[in-house]
Amino acid sequence: MSEPPPGVAAAVEGELRLLDPVVRASTELLVQVLHPDFHEVDTTGRRWDRAMVITSLISDTAPRPGQLTASRMHGVQLADELVHITFDTEAKGKRAHRSSLWRLTESGWLLYYHQATPFVPAEPAGG
Question: How many CB atoms lie within 10 A of CB 50?
């Protein structure tokens, strides 16, 4: 299997960083990964901007989902400065399909847009 394009590799690395509870609890680390124009649609359909996400994640009262486990991560370089990543996560029995757009900036690859959609795994056929 061939190596992914550098942009895809950087975006995957960024997604994995964002799953780290240490990164999720640090303003300094979050601003290194989130684009200034970042927006997200969460699993409830609520829209968030960069400041809202950072404030929420670093809050002492922020819900802590525990360890997020990622699977089925796949990336596609859409243009020289744009990568699309899809993957699934699970934490405490809750699962979500995730889709992210990463943009290349002067400071590197930054998460520009993210959306999470909750899902329940399909029952095995015949079971």
Answer: 19
